[in-house]
């Protein structure tokens, strides 16, 4: 099959038909590629795979889910599965929608009622406007026979507790991995696994309105998605049509109160596909916005105030588009995906404790997660991350049990690998639900002491008995001497003997020994070992105390460590820039250097952070800022917004302009005459590049605007040369074009408005003026038209009408009401000559800007018009 993209190896994905024209591949996993985050579409007509950009909040990683296609909304609905999200890999109760025309993902919280329990390896099918979910499991030990019903148009679930009493006939057995098909208004279910493989074919019949399954007013009203109407339970839409009162069901919040129950930004700003259909108008406009920058965000009504409804005494930011949610930033399930664009890092030292809160550990402690690289700028201590370190070795590349269980893992949401004793392979924990179903991996080992080496390699009884099929031949005495052999409860296996008279066999528990004397204990250097009749006990040494959280002995510093950490009893390790027994004395180095000691606070050992001076009080040349009091010295390249590598003070710039031979502005020679970097108030960037200008290279040249921090040429579709410097809007459109209204009014909604400048024809003109194409003045029967390039007013009676100059064009279009008529055009040229072209397509002529000509544009044929 020809492929326009490389299709990765995946399992646990879904492949769903869309209108008989294409197949959509969602999710999947493989040890080599991790979670598949791309959306692949197989074009049935061309026989090719394509993969394009996705918007909204696509799932970061997903497999074992189900997907159905809904024709009326032209959307895919994806439920459940094993999902990686933000920093956790676990079974999912979530429902995603994919609006196919614009590839927009949304995370749909039910408009009413509760979510179902997490579910994976289930099956789904669509009956009318109802998604039916059957079976599956929520954890490794629990299979399900539940049936879930999702009402697409109402965005609501009917859960098993309400619908189970309506079931008649043979119940479905608990199972996973079964197959389902919808035919003629019925569902057929075949096979599956419920501890054993199942051979069965079941048929399920449902009413067109699933609310009719609820037999009583109490059960009906308890569902929140249904209404009791004329003696029957009906969906909100049906009840509204029959005049039972109340509004029809809505898939999205209708009031600020409904917004407030949504707990995440992705759910708050989700767009149900039903609201994206043409013609829905104001009724489908988003009603909610997300307030962020507080420790916990809030979903409020679109016209509400973040300050009054979610006050945390911090300036908040309003988010209107789900793609700008914080959970979408640095969303990646593995190191390669995290670091691909250079804006994020893969680390185990940070952990999320709220929407904007991050905590930092001294050592890598937490699960692998992707974070913004900007956290390094505010970290008070070194952080181990990729980059600059290479990505950790994936579990599947570790060749043996020891290296596997010694590893800290590599996949997001974990910090260990698992060894399969049956497969003799190292596995990521994210792979286990897919690979190890029904015991397919045998015994799974975790932790460095679990590797099943040979029995003979265990030299201590405790280690021997931890290994399968091993027992201990004890020589007797308290020294723990003995030999580890393969065997069982009755003794060593056939052919093996303990080899000493009087030896005893231990298989379930070890005989008494003094582990403290013979070294068969695991007390560390901070602990004392105490022998007990059965085993031993570790206690903290003097100067240490037990940490109830970690279970480790931590040192105690009686004097306290004001600006440092206690690393040994009564011994502090001071933070950078502090000295003294309790780290309470700060060096006089402006927090940029260590000093020689309490008595030598002015003796700065090594200035860091691009500083210099006896007290690290100055910035190095080519760096900007104030180093005093821990201030920052920024590189000129950052100060100049990436548009120059050289910056000096205003006085130094004047010196260089007066005597350029003596005071060179070459970056390699700046150190020869500039003694320190300038302050931000005095700094001036030299030789701004990339179409920028200004003291900080902060402004764009005429005809350019700021896009992602770079000056980009105005994108006016060839109908203007200038635009608003800040956002690229405001092109003074020529050639009978104009700019239509852009979505929303907030900065986040207007971000892409630069793409739509001069993209619409003025009234009475037709065409598609994108990319330099033209707008055509519509003419009708017996209408006066002339070759005046500026006006068509009173063509045949205006003595001062203008002639069509060299290189100028006038474009007319004819749109007959009927296609089976002849059109006759009469053109009179009273003096001079014109070139006339006739075409059946709007995109035949394209404008090329010629800035040094008197006329604004020239049109040249790009297709094959007919010359006359």
UniProtKB/TrEMBL annotation:
* Pfam families reported in the protein's UniProt record: Beta-prop_ATRN-LZTR1, EGF_LMN_ATRN
The residue ranges of the Laminin EGF-like domain are: 587-635
Source species: Gulo gulo
- What is the top-level taxon of the source organism? Eukaryota
Q: How does it sit in the membrane?
A: Single-pass membrane protein
- Major site of localization recorded for this protein: membrane
Q: Which residues form the EGF-like domain?
A: 512-550
Q: What is this protein called?
A: Multiple epidermal growth factor-like domains protein 8
Q: Which PANTHER family match?
A: ACYL-COA-BINDING DOMAIN-CONTAINING PROTEIN 5, MULTIPLE EGF-LIKE-DOMAINS 8
- Where located? Membrane
Keyword Cell membrane on this protein?
A: no
Q: Keywords, A to Z?
A: Disulfide bond, EGF-like domain, Glycoprotein, Kelch repeat, Laminin EGF-like domain, Membrane, Repeat, Signal, Transmembrane, Transmembrane helix
- What SUPFAM superfamilies is this protein classified in? EGF/Laminin, Kelch motif
Q: Which GO terms describe its cellular component?
A: membrane
Q: Which cysteines are joined by disulfide bonds?
A: 607-616, 619-633
């Amino acid at each position: 099959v020809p492929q326009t993209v490389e299709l990765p190896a995946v399992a646990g994905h879904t492949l769903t038909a869309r209108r008989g024209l294409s197949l959509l591949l969602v999710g999947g996993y493989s040890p080599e590629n991790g979670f598949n985050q791309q959306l692949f579409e197989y074009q049935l007509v061309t026989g090719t795979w394509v993969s394009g950009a996705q918007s909204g909040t696509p799932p970061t990683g997903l497999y074992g889910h189900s997907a159905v296609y809904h024709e009326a909304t032209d959307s895919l609905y994806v439920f459940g599965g094993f999902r990686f999200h933000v920093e956790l890999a676990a079974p999912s109760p979530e429902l995603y929608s994919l609006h196919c025309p614009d590839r927009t993902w949304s995370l749909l919280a039910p408009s009413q009622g509760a979510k179902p329990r997490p579910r994976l390896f289930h099956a789904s099918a669509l009956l009318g406007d109802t998604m039916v979910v059957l079976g599956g499991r929520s954890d490794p030990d629990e299979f399900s026979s539940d049936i879930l019903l999702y009402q697409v148009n109402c965005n609501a679930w009917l859960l098993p507790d309400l619908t189970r009493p309506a079931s008649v006939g043979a119940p479905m057995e608990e199972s996973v991995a079964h197959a389902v098909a919808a035919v003629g208004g019925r569902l057929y279910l075949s096979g599956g696994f419920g501890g054993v493989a199942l051979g069965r074919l079941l048929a399920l019949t449902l009413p067109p309105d699933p609310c009719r399954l609820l037999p009583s007013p109490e059960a009906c009203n308890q569902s929140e998605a249904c209404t009791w109407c004329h003696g029957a339970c009906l969906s909100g839409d049906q009840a509204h049509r029959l005049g039972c009162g109340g509004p029809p069901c809505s898939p999205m919040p209708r009031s600020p109160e409904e917004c407030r129950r949504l707990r995440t930004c992705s759910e708050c700003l989700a767009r149900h596909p039903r609201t994206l259909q043409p013609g829905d108008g104001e009724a489908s406009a988003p009603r909610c916005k997300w307030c962020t920058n507080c420790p916990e965000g809030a979903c409020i009504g679109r016209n509400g105030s973040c300050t009054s409804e979610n006050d945390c005494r911090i300036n908040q930011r309003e988010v209107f588009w789900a793609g700008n949610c914080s959970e979408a930033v640095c969303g990646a399930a593995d190191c390669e995906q995290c670091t691909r664009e250079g804006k994020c890092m893969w680390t185990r030292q940070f952990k999320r404790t709220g929407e904007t809160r991050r905590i930092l550990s001294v050592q890598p402690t937490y699960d692998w997660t992707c974070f913004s690289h900007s956290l390094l700028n505010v970290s008070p201590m070194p952080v181990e991350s990729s980059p600059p370190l290479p990505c950790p070795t994936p579990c599947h590349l570790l060749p043996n049990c020891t290296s596997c269980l010694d590893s800290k893992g590599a996949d997001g949401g974990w910090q260990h690998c698992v060894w399969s004793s049956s497969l003799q392979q190292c596995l990521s924990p994210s792979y286990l639900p897919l690979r190890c179903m029904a015991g397919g991996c045998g015994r799974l080992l975790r932790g460095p002491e679990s590797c099943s080496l040979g029995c003979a390699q265990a030299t201590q009884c405790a280690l021997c008995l931890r290994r399968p099929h091993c027992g201990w031949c004890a020589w007797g005495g308290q020294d723990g001497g003995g030999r580890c052999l393969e065997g069982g409860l009755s003794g060593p296996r056939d052919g093996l003997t303990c080899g000493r008279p009087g030896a005893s066999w231990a298989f379930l528990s070890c005989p008494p020994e003094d582990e403290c004397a013979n070294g068969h204990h695991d007390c560390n250097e901070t602990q004392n070992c105490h022998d007990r009749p059965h085993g031993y006990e570790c206690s903290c040494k003097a100067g240490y105390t037990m940490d109830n959280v970690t279970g480790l002995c931590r040192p105690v510093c009686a004097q306290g460590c004001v600006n440092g950490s206690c690393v040994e009893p009564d011994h502090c390790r001071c933070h950078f820039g502090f000295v003294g027994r309790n780290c309470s004395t700060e060096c006089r180095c402006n927090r940029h250097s260590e000093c020689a000691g309490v008595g030598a606070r002015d003796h700065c050992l090594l200035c860091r952070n691009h500083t210099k001076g006896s007290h690290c009080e100055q910035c190095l040349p080519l760096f900007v800022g104030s180093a005093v009091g821990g201030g920052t010295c920024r590189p000129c390249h950052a100060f100049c917004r990436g548009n120059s590598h050289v910056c000096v003070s205003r006085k130094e710039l004047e010196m260089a302009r007066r005597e350029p031979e003596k005071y060179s502005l070459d970056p390699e020679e700046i150190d020869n005459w500039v003694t320190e970097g300038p302050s931000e108030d005095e700094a001036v960037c030299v030789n701004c590049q990339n179409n920028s200008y200004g003291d900080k290279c902060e402004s764009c040249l005429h005809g350019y605007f700021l896009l992602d921090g770079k000056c980009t040429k105005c994108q006016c579709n060839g109908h203007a040369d200038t635009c608003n410097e800040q956002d690229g809007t405001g092109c003074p459109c020529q050639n009978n074009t104009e700019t239509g209204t852009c979505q929303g009014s907030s900065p986040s909604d207007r971000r892409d408005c630069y793409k739509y400048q001069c993209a619409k024809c003025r009234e009475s003109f037709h065409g598609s003026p994108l990319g330099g194409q033209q707008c055509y003045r519509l003419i009708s029967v017996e209408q006066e038209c002339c070759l005046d390039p500026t006006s068509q007013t009173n063509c045949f009676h205006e003595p001062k009408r203008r002639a069509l100059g060299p290189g100028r064009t006038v474009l007319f279009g004819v749109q007959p009401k009927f296609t089976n008529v002849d059109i006759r055009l009469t053109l009179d040229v009273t003096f001079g000559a014109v070139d006339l072209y006739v075409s059946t397509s709007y995109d035949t002529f394209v404008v090329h800007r010629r800035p040094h000509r008197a006329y604004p544009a020239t049109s040249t044929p790009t297709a094959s018009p007919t010359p006359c």
